Structures are given as structure tokens and as C-alpha cells.
Amino acid sequence: MKAMRVAAFGAPPLPAQLAEPQLRAGRTIVRMEAATVGHIDRTVWGGKFLRHPPFPYTPGVEAAGVVVASTLHAVGQRVWLRGSGLGTLFDGTWCELIDAPDEALGLLPDAVPSTLGSAFFSPCTSAWVALHDIARMRAGERVLVTGATGAVGSLAVQLALDGGAHVIAVVGQAAQAAAMPPAAQVLVLGDDPSEALASVSADLLVDTVGGPLLAAALPRVEPGGRAVLVGYTAGNGLALDLAHFLQRDVALLPLNMFRRDAAGRAAAPELLARLADGRLRLDVQPFALEDAAAALDWIAQRGHRGRAVLVARP
Ligand SMILES: NC(=O)c1ccc[n+]([C@@H]2O[C@H](COP(=O)([O-])OP(=O)(O)OC[C@H]3O[C@@H](n4cnc5c(N)ncnc54)[C@H](OP(=O)(O)O)[C@@H]3O)[C@@H](O)[C@H]2O)c1
């Protein structure tokens, strides 16, 4: 079977022929239909994650496909896969036949295509857990979302609106405003984020960008409010004036979806139902399995929309 293999940190993933996996206790073999290329895969690939599979390895933390051998699931069952060591401890999902721990799998409804089934978990559950499990968002609150054009940010905007919040969606350029739901208030950053943000105040910040944008957005949270930190694409430092921080009493709350995996899995069926009937939307950009390197580049570019997924040739 074909797999994309990485020989060293940062080396391009290259196709290789591997022996087909054999069924073992506690594992399910899945024929891959779509496998996500996400920021976590870039982090592992770049040697910046806390662990990585031994080299050479098959990347890929998420996927969707069909069960071909299992003691737990019926052959032919459509499933999504995520985590449980896939692509971080041992070989992952960028291959034709995935050898997955049983606990990595979830059932994929017929109405959700494999590309979406592969890509949904990280952005949808991250946004859900950030809003509901971590921030305990309440209807009527003002929720400021940075990186609102991104996968997690766009889901946070949609889910906060669904939860009855007043949403302020932060985008970089005026042209991106059209992509936001009409019910959201859109704030365009332009050249001076601090000036652009000066007129808003919020009860809750969901920050998916980090760096200087987090520094500019944090003071916009009212005293007693909360700020959930999701990502640090724009920089991983934040300088705090401690006196100011204590006086303002805004709770800085990190999101770590590996630690919050159970909460994400608990929310997955509801999120899949909303994706199936169109209440939630997530764009996916398919690439051929062999084009994994191009997908890794694509997700690192500003202005890309949605999630990259590798699709197996029929
Ligand atoms: N903590 C966790 O457990 C967890 C879970 C999921 C994701 N994450 C992290 O969350 C982050 C967002 O994930 P994602 O999937 O939403 O990524 P994404 O789809 O690539 O979106 C990135 C967003 O950030 C914006 N952005 C990027 N660089 C920026 C900058 N310098 N200034 C202002 N805006 C900038 C992009 O705007 P443009 O559209 O204008 O380029 C876009 O809206 C990533 O760092 C990811 O690793 C963390």
C-alpha cells in the first residue's frame, strides 16, 4: 500500500510502498478516503511538537474512511479518525490503509462526505470546547473572535452566533468581510490593529492568532471577562503589565485539545449533525495523496480558506 513518508524534520513527504497492515488486538484497519493536513501535522513535521513517531514516519493525525478489518466495528462502516497517537506517537493517516487504535475512531454519518469527516474534528471541536467547556459562554454575551476567516475562528463565529452571542468577527482585510455570517459584526484590522479594535468591548475573547493581535485584543475584554487562547500563528510571546492584569481581572484560559480530547469527542456527534444539515459550514480543499508537500505549504499561506485534505485515488 502507498504511504507518504517523512525521513527527517522538515523533509518533504515522499511516496513509498509499505506492507499492508495486519489486524491486531485493539486496532482497526481503515481504508483512507480523506486525510487532513493540519497545523498539528506541520508542528510535528517541523520538530516542534512534544513528541513524534520514529523516522521515517507516516504523518497525519486525522482522517475519514471505511473499516476493512476490526473486532469492534462492522466491515464497511464509515468512520472518522483522530489522535490517540496517530501521526504523533506512531504512523498516521497519510496512507491508503490506516492501522488505527480503536479509540481513535468515531462513526461518520452518511450525509457527511469523507473530506469533511476528515477535517471537521479539530476546528469544530476546538471552537465548541473553547466557547462552551472553557469559557462557559452565555447567550447575550459579546464575543470577540480573532482570525475569524480561519478554520477555528470561522467555526467559533458560527457556534457563538448559534449560542445567542453578539459576535464581533475580526478579519484582516475589508474584502474578507463578505465571507462572514450576516449576523456577525465584522471588524477589519487594516494596518493598525490597536486602532481598529479601540472601539469594541467584549465579555469574551476567542483568540486564534496570538502575538501582537492578542496584545491588542486583550484590553478590549471587560474587567471580569475571559480570553481563550487557541493559537499563536502571529507570535508566541505576550508581555503583561502585571498591575494592569490584576486590576482588570480578565481570565486567560488556554485551550489544549489534546488534553480536552474527551470533551471534543463528546461534542462530535452534535457537530457532525449540524454539518450534515448545513447549520455549520467548513470549507475543505482536496489534494492528491502524493501532493502532501503542496498541502503543507498551502496551509501555511495567509489567505487560504478551510482545511486541506489528501484524497486517495479511486
Ligand atoms: N490549542 C489547540 O488545541 C488548538 C486547536 C486547533 C487549532 N489550534 C491552532 O489555532 C490556530 C488557528 O488554527 P486554524 O485551523 O483556524 O488556522 P487557519 O485556518 O490557518 O486560520 C488562521 C487564521 O489566522 C489569521 N492569521 C494568520 N496570521 C495572522 C497574522 N499575522 N495576523 C492576523 N491574523 C493572522 C488568518 O487570517 P488570513 O485569512 O487573513 O490569513 C486566519 O484567519 C493555529 O495556530 C492552530 O495550530 C490550536
Tell me the structural class: alpha/beta
Distance between the termini: 13 Å
Using the 3D structure, state the CATH architecture of the largest domain: Alpha-Beta Complex
Bound molecules: NADP nicotinamide-adenine-dinucleotide phosphate
CATH topology name of the largest domain, in short, is Quinone Oxidoreductase, Chain A, domain 1
The mean pLDDT is: 95
List SSEs in N-to-C order: EEEHEEEEHHEHEEHEHEHEHEHE
CATH class (first level) name of the largest domain: Alpha Beta
Q: What's the tally of helices?
A: 9
**Range of strand content:** 25-35%
CATH superfamily of the largest domain: Medium-chain alcohol dehydrogenases, catalytic domain
Q: Name the poorly predicted regions.
A: none
What Rg do the Cα atoms give? 20 Å
- Total domains: 2
Helix coverage percent of residues? 25-40%
InterPro entries: ADH-like_C (IPR013149), ADH-like_N (IPR013154), ER (IPR020843), GroES-like_sf (IPR011032), NAD(P)-bd_dom_sf (IPR036291), Zn-ADH-like_protein (IPR051397)
Organism: Variovorax ginsengisoli
Protein name: Zinc-binding alcohol dehydrogenase family protein
What can you tell me about this protein's structure?
InterPro entries: ADH-like_C, ADH-like_N, ER, GroES-like_sf, NAD(P)-bd_dom_sf, Zn-ADH-like_protein. It comes from Variovorax ginsengisoli. It holds the Pfam family ADH_zinc_N. The protein has 314 residues and is α/β, with parallel strands linked by helices. β11, α6 and β12 form a beta-alpha-beta unit. α3 packs across α4. The chain is globular, with a radius of gyration of 20 Å. The two termini are 13 Å apart. The model has no long low-confidence stretch (mean pLDDT 95). It binds NADP nicotinamide-adenine-dinucleotide phosphate. The site of NADP nicotinamide-adenine-dinucleotide phosphate has 24 residues, from α3 and α4.
